[in-house]
């Protein structure tokens, strides 16, 4: 009886671990594009090359989650709502540095707290191409976007959203780039 119970507990634990899904943005099971086949396509290379991971003081925490997919989904959704019907936009995310940084603190017992300071603004490097319904190129090129004053105003997202400053950076770029 005890052996069966132990076997069931082990099996359930393994099943729970297997079903939790990817926990790192560098996980090869995560998509590298969103919106394929739609009017707005956002793609990116391996996030291990992004500044967010390469220069982080805590790479383990910086790579946790699926924040690249979440930001790409958000970007795809915002652009799709902004561009005229029939237009097509292709975006390639070349680099991301999220707002804030994991700072090392002496005598601290945790290293998973993201500290927000003016010296850690959100930044992105994007390559994009906007084509209108007739096939004419409206705009294209590389954009390096940053919100250097990201702590000066409150973003229109809940404080519980860890990507609120990064999403506001996307909102600002979409508003400027795809004005009607």
Description of the structure:
By secondary structure, the chain is an alpha+beta fold. It has one domain. 31% of the residues lie in helices and 22% in strands. The strands form two sheets. It has a five-stranded mixed sheet. A two-stranded antiparallel ribbon has the order 4-5. The protein is globular, with a radius of gyration of 20 Å. The termini are far apart. Residues 5-19 have low confidence and may be disordered.
Key features of this structure:
5-stranded mixed beta sheet, 31% helix, 7 strands, 180 residues, 5 helices, globular
> Taking strands numbered 1, 2, ... along the chain, how are they ordered across the largest sheet?
1-2-3-6-7
Q: What is the tally of helical segments?
A: 5
Q: Number of DSSP strands?
A: 7
Q: How confident overall, as mean pLDDT? A: 86
Rg estimate, integer Å: 20 Å
N→C terminal distance: 70 Å
* Gross morphology: globular
**Approximately how much beta-strand content do the residues carry?**
15-25%
Class inferred from helices and paired strands: alpha+beta
Helix content: 25-40%
| Secondary-structure element series | HEEHHHEEEEEH
Largest sheet data: 5 strands, mixed
Query: How many structural domains in the coordinates?
Result: 1
């Amino acid at each position: 009886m005890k052996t069966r119970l132990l076997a069931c507990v082990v099996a359930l634990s393994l099943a729970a671990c297997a079903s939790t899904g990817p926990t790192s943005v560098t996980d090869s099971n995560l998509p590298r594009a969103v919106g394929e086949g739609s009017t707005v396509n956002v793609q990116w290379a391996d996030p291990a090359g992004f500044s967010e991971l390469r220069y982080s003081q805590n790479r383990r925490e910086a790579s946790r989650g699926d924040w690249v997919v979440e930001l790409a989904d958000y970007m795809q959704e915002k652009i799709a709502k902004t561009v005229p019907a029939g237009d097509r936009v292709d975006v390639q995310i070349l680099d991301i540095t999220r707002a804030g940084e994991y700072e090392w603190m002496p005598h601290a017992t945790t290293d998973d707290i993201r500290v927000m300071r003016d010296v850690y603004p959100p930044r992105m490097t994007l390559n994009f191409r906007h084509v209108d319904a007739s096939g004419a190129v409206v705009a294209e090129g590389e954009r390096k976007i940053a919100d250097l004053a990201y702590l000066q105003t409150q973003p229109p997202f809940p404080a519980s959203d860890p990507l609120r400053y990064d999403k506001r950076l996307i909102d600002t770029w979409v508003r400027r780039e795809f004005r009607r």
